[in-house]
Design goal:
Elements: E1 4-7, H1 11-22, E2 27-30, H2 34-43, E3 59-62, H3 65-69, E4 74-77, H4 84-91, E5 100-103, H5 116-123, E6 131-135, H6 140-144, E7 149-154, H7 158-167, E8 173-178, H8 181-204, H9 208-228, H10 233-236, H11 239-250, H12 255-264, H13 269-275, H14 281-296, H15 301-310
Parallel strand pairs: 1-2, 1-4, 2-3, 4-5, 5-6, 7-8
Antiparallel strand pairs: 6-7
Helix pairs in contact: 4-5, 8-9, 8-11, 8-12, 8-14, 8-15, 14-15
The structure holds nicotinamide-adenine-dinucleotide (NAD) and SN-glycerol-3-phosphate (G3P).
The site of SN-glycerol-3-phosphate has 13 residues, from helix 8, helix 11 and helix 12.
Pathway: Membrane lipid metabolism; glycerophospholipid metabolism
Pfam families: NAD_Gly3P_dh_C (PF07479), NAD_Gly3P_dh_N (PF01210)
Function: Catalyzes the reduction of the glycolytic intermediate dihydroxyacetone phosphate (DHAP) to sn-glycerol 3-phosphate (G3P), the key precursor for phospholipid synthesis.
Length: 336
Amino acid sequence: MSGIAVVGGGNWGTTFAKVLADGGHDVTLAVRRAEMAEEINDAHRNTAYLPGINLPDRIRATTDLREAITDTDYVFLSVPAQSCRENLEEIRPLLSDSAAVISLMKGVERSTGKRMSEVIAEVAAIGSDRVAVASGPNIALEIAQGQPTAILVASESDDLAMRVARIARCSYLRSFVSNDVIGTEFGGVLKNLIAIAIGIADGVGFGENTKASIMTRGLAEITEFAEALGAHRDTMMGLAGMGDLIATCMSPLSRNFTAGRLLGQGYSYVDVNSRMQQTAEGLRSVDSILEIASEEGVPMPIVQQIAAVLDGRMHPTELAPHLATDDDENPKGETA
Ligand SMILES: NC(=O)c1ccc[n+]([C@@H]2O[C@H](COP(=O)([O-])OP(=O)(O)OC[C@H]3O[C@@H](n4cnc5c(N)ncnc54)[C@H](O)[C@@H]3O)[C@@H](O)[C@H]2O)c1
Ligand SMILES: O=P(O)(O)OC[C@H](O)CO
């Protein structure tokens, strides 16, 4: 048995399939639309998601999940987090007894607050030694253009993390390994929220001081949250935390930053949703993260202000979460 499948032919799924193929592997890319599969197979292009990018011949697209998953060792999942469960329900009966499932997603499930690796283990009914996650400063289009970057692959199984890292690398993507699954996942989920705040600040017209202070306080805020949930601090200071935070907050290609900027420009949440062509996971994660933060007693002033802008309780020009403190005499974390 051998084989690699990527499920989800969007921005990231297609780019990740290209990374795997450029690393010398044959990859089956499971997509939903027949015309997309045809374009990828015949013209080696996915113009809807990666305009101007030529895809390697080693990628074969199909709309048939059975063809993609059967007898496959590694299944990489790159669909919106809210559709992870339904996609897995279709995948589960097709999985071989030893196949590993790797999440490329950066969201939590709204209905349960679960991380994607938790949803995978539950729905696919597989042990944590067959589940991995991969996350880092990975703006898809830049990687598809061959611009160099790095990614962190994490699994509770060192062996699986190493195997996935060896597959998921090529001349322009270096993979590092970790066993901090919680930190690697929360790094990706939480940086999206800070990128929305930075987008709001940008849309309002605030300058670099504002954005730098939100980013810095944001890193402290998401690190405290992630640590409370079991993440290692080092992970939050590494590629999957600070690295991804910087990339996402600074890139106009980021969908989370773009969604924030639209909010800052005065569009409502409903308008922003209808304008976004691609997945901005942060918009769907805000409520779940605040719920978990409240259960854990972790203060999240930045995320709270994003929620207030999203539901119209706060005007974007009032966004100044880095000024909020319960105790002005004893500001917390000012070494950050
Ligand atoms: N784009 C990036 O730069 C990037 C980088 C790293 C991680 N990610 C993460 O990867 C995941 C996928 O993001 P993306 O950028 O590829 O999103 P996207 O919107 O570009 O594509 C999503 C894909 O999922 C498919 N899909 C399958 N089931 C679906 C369903 N029920 N509803 C909607 N779409 C469904 C769509 O057809 C589409 O091909 C997200 O969690 C995102 O945070 C994205
Ligand atoms: O476009 P975004 O905001 O989903 O961010 C993409 C990646 O997660 C950046 O690492």
